[in-house]
Amino acid sequence: MIQTITKLQNSKYRRLFDIVLIFVGTLCMSAPVKLIYEPMKMVMGGFGGFAIVIKYFAEGFGLDIPVWFSNAVLNIPVFIIALIVLGKDFVAKTFLGAVTFAVWLYVIPTYDICGGDYLLAIAVGGLLDGVGIGLIFLTNSTSGGTDMVSAILHKFLKHYSVPSILFGVDGLIVVLGAFVLGFRNAMYGILTIYVLTKISDTMLEGVKFAKLVYIISDEYEKIAKLIMSEMDRGVTAISARGMYTNKDKSMLFCVVGKKEIVKLKEIAVVTDPKALIIVSDVREAFGEGFIEYKHDSAVK
Length: 300
Hints:
alpha+beta; 2 domains; 11 helices
């Protein structure tokens, strides 16, 4: 899926496709707010979560403040400050995301689709929210809110990274929400944030579908030949030096599919029982035998 999106973004329809991604992404982000978080009083980060806190805090004073309204009002001063501090180029990329997010919050009715089941809310809410955030980040923009607040604060707190500042801002919202909506609801919100973060990271970094293997062995030539002949996989020999023996040797480097790792380890161990085998996950692998990547942009 990510490869398809990347290919379309590199085409002549990139700007149109980015707009579509922003519309779909903000829909995926706003749906959980109206259909899960708001009716179940779950405390979330971002201006959407802060708007939920404001809504239920205001109800204690007999006021009805819609979530979409609070979200829009909170974004106005942030955009003005961002225009001054960060410049119009940054604000222009985020403006569409912020507007469509607020519109979706206005259009979607408030309804509890999980029936009060908090575990289901964490799973569904985290999935939809994570996909939405991932789609928007693929366009190199955001939906405004605390993301933009963090970018502004980073200009004055350069010794802190933007993600660190964002964690602190969203954490403050969760703490405030815990006082208004209760500690239990805040904990469920934190679990949902964890799920959506994992989902969005997976969308941006790719699914772990391959394995990277390093093999250190005196029989590296035999092992390499068997891997190439029996598995039809390429192998690279990297020059290395054993610091204990102070001898030069070659280390094999190979990327294989998850289902092939057992066969590769069997080849290495049978050929040399003393071989050192190191296996790690690979997020994405482009090239022959894996994903074919075609870059159609004008950059040569």
